[in-house]
Amino acid sequence: MQEPSGTQGLSRRSFLEATALGLGVLAVGGLAGCAPKAAGGDAGSQGASASGGSAADVKWDGEYDVVVCGGGGGGLTAAYSALENGASKVVVLEKGTQCGGTTALAEGAVQAAGTKWQKEKGIADDTPDLLYNYWKTDAEGLVDDELIRNMADNAADNVQWMADSFNITFANVFGAYGTPYLDPANLKDRIHLIADASDPAKTGGAVWTTNAQKAVEGKGGEIITGVEATSLVMDNGAAVGVATKDGKHYKANKGVVLAMAGIEHNEELAFRFNPQHYWDLTTQSVITAATDTGDGIVMGMEVGAQTVFHGCVDLLLPTWSYTNNQNPEIPYILVNMRGTRFVREDTTYAFHCRALFNEAMQWGGAEGSTYMVMDAKMATSDKMCAWSDNAEGGAAAREKALADGTLVQADSLEALAAAIGVPAANLTYTVDKWNADCAAGADSLYGREKQLTALDTAPFYAWKTQNSNIGAIGGLKINTDAAILGADGKPIPHLFGAGVNTAGWIGPYYPGSGTCLQGTLNWGRIAGKSAASA
């Protein structure tokens, strides 16, 4: 997820307001207060078999070729794909009061290499190999090669299929930032911003989910909202249907697709499997749909599915730092509780957010923190900074942040250090060193290249950073058919996964905007096709 560039999208402030509204809507009906299921809990107590054996005694409340659990981008894509690949009856079961999920809250960025939209912008040298290299390198060896190869090879065709199937075009194409060990040759402007083909002023993930829902229903697919899938009905090790919280059972003659998002609001699973996400849940900010409690992951685990968990999709929302290579960056450095720099700031946002987590843990444990340090130029910087006079409502936001202590202002570095509780000598040395490197034109410590701007003009500012988490990384392990794998590494018959319910295709941090939505598109499309032919 990343803010739209130019005039096509939301301002930062309206984006924040829309996000808050979206979360509120999805929480209607008490969903936000529902306790997430624990792995191995009572999900199978609704009269269905969640652990194998015979399902002969189950009374079916509906019979379909394919049952899709989850009405976000992955689920709706899977349903449409199933319908166009021969499934005559398909149902989508959505926990929320409306379809969309976190996809509808996203900016709507999709990565792809070699598309016509790139070529229209003069980007003619991007290839699936370069995209694969980019994802592979940033995964730090913790990703399934076959999965990212599949995604990279399919990416261009996927966005064309999305355009053709859901009346979509792409309003802009821009780029991500690299990491210290990434060959710059693998970086291209390949992040495509979703827009409605009938009204290109409408952009974002909500365009995808709205148009996809219409397309599914137009092909005869059934969508039921306000129903919570709780367990799989299994027969001799194969998925044959789904049980729901209200005691109903939906039969799947061909396949079941789990597309129910990640463990975003499941504190228990985060505690067990994903320390960075647990830290975000308990001390930072998680801004995904309230319905994302890892239900599909729990359902898969109950029938013996493999899982893979890593980190998070984190960014610094008030500053949107290093998310979009078309946006001017704010002059700042990041420091730890010792007042020293610890990371190259001009890397893709989730890379430095992982560093924020690690550094906070190293010096403060669960109560640890890091700080963004700025000078007077912050107040006159680009509109991408929430506290800039150039931002919509920026001056008022700055005054509010100063009043509530979120942002600290001081006339000297020594006073700033005292205000945030770091050693003054360390902070002044750090800033002096940074300023000297800026004058020399090279960051001697970390090799930063972007925004080598001295911090030398009072007043000085410090913001106690807060990760804005837009998704946990991890879920059910799949193969290139989107089949969910069991403990033995073999596919669980007739069970498939889509979107961020699945895992194995993102490593320990998020490699850049558009990766999740390309994965959601790719595995949704494949899962639907596989389920229809199972």
UniProtKB/TrEMBL annotation:
The keyword Oxidoreductase applies. The keyword Transferase does not apply. Residues 65-517 form the FAD-dependent oxidoreductase 2 FAD-binding domain. Its cofactor is FAD. Signal peptide: none annotated. One of its GO terms (molecular function) is steroid dehydrogenase activity, acting on the CH-CH group of donors. GO terms for biological process: steroid metabolic process. PROSITE patterns: TAT. SUPFAM superfamilies: FAD/NAD(P)-binding domain, Succinate dehydrogenase/fumarate reductase flavoprotein, catalytic domain. Keywords: FAD, Flavoprotein, Oxidoreductase. This is FAD-dependent oxidoreductase. It comes from Gordonibacter massiliensis.
